[in-house]
Each structure stands twice: as C-alpha cells, then as structure tokens.
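Researcher: Next sequence.
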Amino acid sequence: MSLAAVSGLFVGTERLGSFAPDKALITSAFVPNPDFVLCRDNSGAPTAVYKEQVWDFNPYRLSSKKVNKFYFETVFEFIGSEQYSLIDEAKYVIYCLIYFVGGGRAGKLSVGTVVNYWFVIRAAIKFCDRQKEKPAVGSLTLRQLLTTPIYLAAFLEDNKDSCLIARLVSSILRGLILVGEDRLGYRVINSGDLKFDRGSYHQHPVIPTRIYLGMINGLSDLLDQMHVGIGRFESFIAKFDDKYYGLNFSTQSAAGFGGKTYFRPAMIDALEHHGLADVFSGEFLCEHKRYFSSSLLKMQYALKQVIHLYTGMRDQEVLRMPYNCLAEQVYIKESVDDTGVVRDRTRAVSILSTTTKFTGYRKAESWFAPSDVVKAVKIAQAICRGLSKLYKIATGPNCPLFLNPSILKHKGAEVGVGSLTASNVRLAAFKSFVIESSDLQELSQTDTKRDFYHESKFGVGQSWPLTSHQFRRSLAFYASNSGFVSLPSLKSQYKHMTIEMSRYYSNGFENLRTIFGYYDPGRKEFVLPPSHVALEFQMGIPMAVANQLLSDVLFRDAPLFGGTGSYMEKQKTRVEKGEVCVEDVRAETVVQVKSGSISYRDTLLGGCTKVGRCDSFMLGDFTECLSCEGAIIKPELVDDAIQVTTAELAGYADNTGEYQITKGDLERLSYFKARQINRVER
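Model: Next structure:
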C-alpha cells in the first residue's frame, strides 16, 4: 500500500471536529485528480476542490479572523490559454506546499501562511503574464520564473516596495526545495544563492561608455599583440623544461657548465630567436626569466577579460573552461534541391562550452563566441599546449584552458588554474581608466536608486574598480541598446558582434535555445541554461530603451518636433521650470516602456516611440515620420535629409518614377522645415 501525505493545514485541527481532506500519495509526482479535495467544512462539504476556481481554507484556520479565499479567475483581466496555464501551475505549487512541506514540529502549516504564499504566487503569475509586453521575452511560465535567477531578480525588483514579497520568496523557494525536483518537475533556485537584500544589495554597475570603449580598444590591441605569437608560444614555452634556459649568462656561468659553448640563450635573446620580442613587450614585458611566469599570467588574464567582454560568462564559468572548449554549432542545415544542387549552405556559429559528456550531446552551458573570442581561445590554447609539456600532461577535456604558469617557477606545481583575479594581476591599461565627472553622471543614470556619488570607490579621480561580472552586465545593457540605437563610437568589431547577437536573439526563443542551450535527455529538448546572459539581454531591453530615450532626447539642447518630440519638449520645459524633477520623468518613462505603451528606435529623421510594426518604416517611406504621432524629429537630421534628397534628385531624369517619388519626399521635407522648424527658430 502506498504511503499517503496528510495536508499540513489539517494537522492539529482534528480536535476541533474538522473533516479531513483527501490524502496525497507520497509516491505520486503527478497533478492530483481534478476532484481532489483540499479542504472540507464542519459538515464534510468540500470548500476547496482542485479543479475549482475558488478555494476556501477558512474551515482549517485557528484564528478568529476570516482569511481571504483564493479567486483564481480574477487574477487576470483577460483569461486565455496562457493565463489558465499559469493558474494551473500556481495551483500545483500551492498543493505541493500544503502536502509535502508542512511546518512546525508536527508538520502544521497555518492557513495564514498559505494565504501569504498565494499573495506572492499571485503576484508572480501576474508578472509572468506581463512579460508578453516585452517582445524579446514573451510570456513566462511560473517554472521559468522559479528556475531562472535573472527573471526572479526582475520580479523582486518589480516588487521592491513589498517587504512581504521579498521575505516570502525565500520561504517559498526553501519549501519547494523540500518538495523535491522529482515531484515538482524542476529544480528551483536556491534561496541562499538569490542574494537579494533590499537594504544592501546592489547590481554590478554598468561600465560607463567612455571607459567601456577604452577597455574594448585596449583589450583589442592586447589581443592583436598576443596573436602575433600564436604559432610560437608552444615551442618557446616547452624550451623551459630545461631549467637553465633563459637564465642570464652570469647565472649559467656560476652553475659551472664548462664554457660558453654550453650556454643557453638568455631571456632577451631567446625571445628574439623565437620571434616573440614584440609580443613580450609593453604590458607583457619580460626581460628576465623570473618574470616569465607573471607575464604569461597577465596574458591569460587579458584573454579571460576578452571572453568576459564578448560572452557575458561569469568568472568561474571561464575558469572551468577545458582546453577543447571551442566548437561549432550548426543552426541552419544545408538545403539541397531535387537535382542535388546546394541552394543554402550550412550555417554555424562558434560556441564555448564548459563541460561535455560522451553521450553525444552538450550537457553544460554554451555561449556564442564571436571572432575575437575565438582568437582569444586559440591564443590561450597555444599557451596551454606549451605549459602542458612542462606538466607532462595531455591537452584535452580534463586539461584546464588557463593552465597555471607557476610550473615555470616551481617544478612541483599542481595541475590547475592560476589566480586570474584583479587583485593578483594588475594590467596598467585598466588602471589608467580614471573616473571623470561625466562617467559618474552617466553611471547614476543607469541606476537611479543607487547613490554612486557617496561611494568612495566611484569617486572622481579614482581608477575604475573593474570586476569580471561588470562585463556581463554591461554587455546585456549595451547589446540591448544596439537593437534600438546606433553607437557610432564603438569599434566596428564590437558593433558587428552586437548585430550578430541581436540577429540570433531576434530569430525567436526556439532558435536561441538550439544555439545556446544544452540537450536535456529527460525532457528530450534543448534547454537554455538559467544563468545565460541572453536572459539578462532580454530583461535589460526595457530599461535600456528608457535610458536611451531620456539621454538621447530629454537631455539635448536643440528643440524637437513631431508628435512625441513636442511632448518631450514640454517635459523639458517642465524640468527647467522646476515643475517636475528629472527622476519623476525618468520613472514615468520606465513605467511606460515596461507596460509596452512606448518604445524607441532610431530613424533617419530622429526617433520613433511607436509600439509594434511600422509599415512605412519597413517600406523605407521615411517622410511619413513627419506626420506620425510617435515620431521624434530632430532639425539637424531634417537638414541632412534635404541635402541628401536634393543630391539624389539631380541624378534622375524628369520623366522617371524615381524622380517623382524623390521630388515628393523633398517637397514634404522642405514644407516641414519651413512651417515647423523655421517658425520656431524665428
């Protein structure tokens, strides 16, 4: 006979004459029968039946005050299949908490606690449903929310003013861990890893644009410098298996080799001989053998930062990378027509992975690797091959990519990863990035809830306090920005990378999972790892839109025109007169972006705040912006468009269709400038 679980709400109420609810089979991992009774009144009549849309647990309460019933169908304004699915998930979570968690010494769970749980779960499924307003995210399931740190952090941020939600989320997570992955169907986030403290929690800061671009340029230059030696690192490092190789002649002479004939080349001569003198210069200068280990460690540190910069991987995720971490993932298969002619060739992307199994599928997390990351990994592999010869080990899945170069100093060093931390390895290029007042102002705009001006480490004149996780946050922030506005000051390599990311992300969540996910044999599908930076990219888009809209529009001196442009001009006037503060305008803008009532993207004439598809934009009819309610028109761009259109018109014959269309565009632009822009300027 199967063991049965008793309701935690019913335990302890028998003495009050309560009628017991149904018992749940402990061995069952399935949703209970629709007619399953969770609560009965004093006459034995059911008051909470699993399939019903109203649950009443008042018969099992011990307090004199009545508690609220659970009204499932009133959670959403509109009820469709997605909303019913969320309600079903919520019901099952509550059922599991009642029957398989309990509380107190005797497993007693108070009705008031369950009501509080429902308050949180209700807010959670409403949050999941609201995400459909974000095109990059779409409707979430409760399962996704409870298993993805980024989504749950966004939910907590959305409810930051509720002490009850912040406190009870951890309690619910602990309870669901006790329920177990087998019964629940998924593994929830460990509350201990959540690290959400309303009083002290701060996200890693976004690196200000000026410093971020400097780091991109600096790391790119260092990468090019190291890449020169990619074919020579292995043979050169292997030479140091001879403990006298690279030592000064005086040191070798003191060792008593028996004459100069037996001398090994000193470090400078050895570098020249292997064509590595230019590689080991500047940041990686190595004039003596005793500095060789630290120079290699600096190289590994710089390569590690490149990987962080372009992938968003966490610190330990990079350090866990094995030697053979680089692979190709096909996302479009080759298509061949009936005659055998290849019409579309196979398309693949380079990916990084931390762990692989021998079962034919990728088990651990994977990341999209643009060209600079591929270059960085191949340089690290070349260094690793040389060090592996000193360690007398084979490169492969069990060999760390960033093999510790301490073997050059200590022959008995254990196989492992070096200490690649900012406190242990100091790059002069990074120390030179000093915070300016403009950086601090921009930093404050990325997180208005944090007072950076009173944090000593962000003081003007201080070196930027870099951590690897800042690259992850900044990548999500700036990459999501790149989908809406251009960043012309970024290097072409970085712009290309973000365009690639945006392209893959915009192909839909299904394609995203097949490219970046791992195969789950239990579910028989590809699953996106819950810690992936793509999820931060998705959640970062609304905030990035709001920030860019304000910085690109509200804080400019020149006037704006168009439907939304005129509205923003009024807001600017209100700010200047002191009728409203910038923080209020920003908060209102963020709310509008999150609710899906406003968006922002660049156009030829300024910007567009229209939500959804724009047929005129897709057809290239840019002059339609002049009369659009969602348009932001910038006078300087109208002048540019008039010049370009005038030059284009001169290239067409008068009797052609192209001439007529272009002439119409020019007339509309000129009319708008005369009636709107010139009038305001006068």
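Model: Residues 556-682 form one domain. The radius of gyration is 31 Å.
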